[in-house]
Amino acid sequence: MAEHPSSLCSPCSFCSPVPLSMRIIPHVSLLPLVTVTTASIQNITIDDANGDEVTGEVPSYYGNGWNARSASTPCTGCVSQPDGQLFWNHTWHDQSAAYSPDASPPIPSNFSFRFSGKSVWIYCTLPGSDIKASTRLQFYLDNNAEPDSTFDYVPPDGSTYAYNQAVYGTTSLLDGEHTMLVSNLVSQESLWTLLLFDYAVYQRDISPNATSPQSEPSTSDAGSTPTSTSQIPTSIPSSYVTATTAQPYGNEDGGRSSPTAAGVRIGGAVGGVFAAAIAIGILSWWGVRRRRKRKSLEMADMTPYPTATQKPPFASAGIARSLMTTAPALEQQKAPSPTSSGQSTRAVTDGTVLLGEMARMREDFERLRSRIDGPPQYDHVRQ
C-alpha cells in the first residue's frame, strides 16, 4: 500500500505510533475492578437459637412463656405443632399469650437483637386456623418509644401453617449499628396471640473500606452456620395482613432460598455492561481509523495523471526538437525496485505511465518533423 504524506493525516490520536495492544490493555484491565467494587453487599442471618453467623451474638428473650424448640426436641405440651423440618436450621422460639378481661393487662413478651447494616428483615412462621390464634407484633428500632411498624395476622378459615414469612422489612436505615426489639401484643381484639420466631436477615457492606461489626462474639456454645447471602423472599398475600406499615417479604412454600451472592450477581451484571461498552468503544475506534485510512487512499487516487489520449501543444519545431532531446534520457530511466524499507508500488505505475507518454510524444514529434523537413509542395509541375 502506498505511503501517504503526513498532510493527509489529521493530527489526532488515531495516527499515534502507540501499538494497538497498549491502547486496549488499560481499558480491559479495569473490568476486574468494576466487578469487585460493585459486589459489596452481603446478607447475614441471625438464627433464633444460633444467633448472628458472623458475630455469634444470640437474640435476647424477655417475659414469660418462651419455648426454645427444634425438630429433634418436640414440645408435647405446646398448642402449636408446626413441622420443625421447615424452619431455618430446624429451630424456632415459641411464645403465646392469652387475654383475660379479669386480669390486669399482660406485659408483652419481647425479643431483641443487634446488627450492623442498612437493611433488616424478620421471618416468622404464621399459625393456621386450627388453633384459633393470631399474630400481632410491634417493632421498635434503636430504642425508640414509638413503634416503627405493626404487623397483624389473622389466619383465614382452612389455612395451615405458613413458613418462612417476613413480618417486617426495611431498607432505609443508615449504615451502622442498630437495635431491634419485637413485642408480642395481646389485646381484647386478639384474645390469643402466637409468635413463632425463626430468623432475621440484615445486609451489610463488605467493601474494603467498610467497617466490621463491633459486637463481641457470644459465649454460647451453639455453632454458627456459613455466611448466608440469600435473596429476600417474595411477599405473603395482602389478604393475610389486616394492618401493617412494613412491606412483608415471605415465601409461601416454606422453603428458604439457597444461599446465593446477590451482590456478586449485581457486580457481574455491571461488569458485563462495562465490558460490552469497552468492547463497543474499541470496535468503533478501529472502524473510524480504518475509514480515515480508506478516505486518505481515495483522496490520493484522485490525483490526475496524463493519459495517452492527451497531446501536448507544440508551438514550433524548436520546442519539438528540445523535447526530443530529453525523451531518450527519460526513456532510459527504469522503475525503482522496492527496497528493504518497503517502497510504494505506485512509483512503478507512475514511471510506466511517464514512459508511455514520452513514447507518444516522440511519435508526434516524428510526424511533425516529417512535415517541416520534407520537400516543398508545388501546385503544378514546371514544364
UniProtKB/TrEMBL annotation:
<feature type="region of interest" description="Disordered">
    <location>
        <begin position="208"/>
        <end position="239"/>
    </location>
</feature>
<keyword id="KW-0812">Transmembrane</keyword>
<feature type="region of interest" description="Disordered">
    <location>
        <begin position="329"/>
        <end position="349"/>
    </location>
</feature>
<feature type="transmembrane region" description="Helical">
    <location>
        <begin position="266"/>
        <end position="288"/>
    </location>
</feature>
<feature type="compositionally biased region" description="Low complexity">
    <location>
        <begin position="224"/>
        <end position="239"/>
    </location>
</feature>
<protein>
    <submittedName>
        <fullName>Uncharacterized protein</fullName>
    </submittedName>
</protein>
<keyword id="KW-0472">Membrane</keyword>
<keyword id="KW-1133">Transmembrane helix</keyword>
<feature type="compositionally biased region" description="Polar residues">
    <location>
        <begin position="208"/>
        <end position="223"/>
    </location>
</feature>
<feature type="compositionally biased region" description="Polar residues">
    <location>
        <begin position="334"/>
        <end position="347"/>
    </location>
</feature>
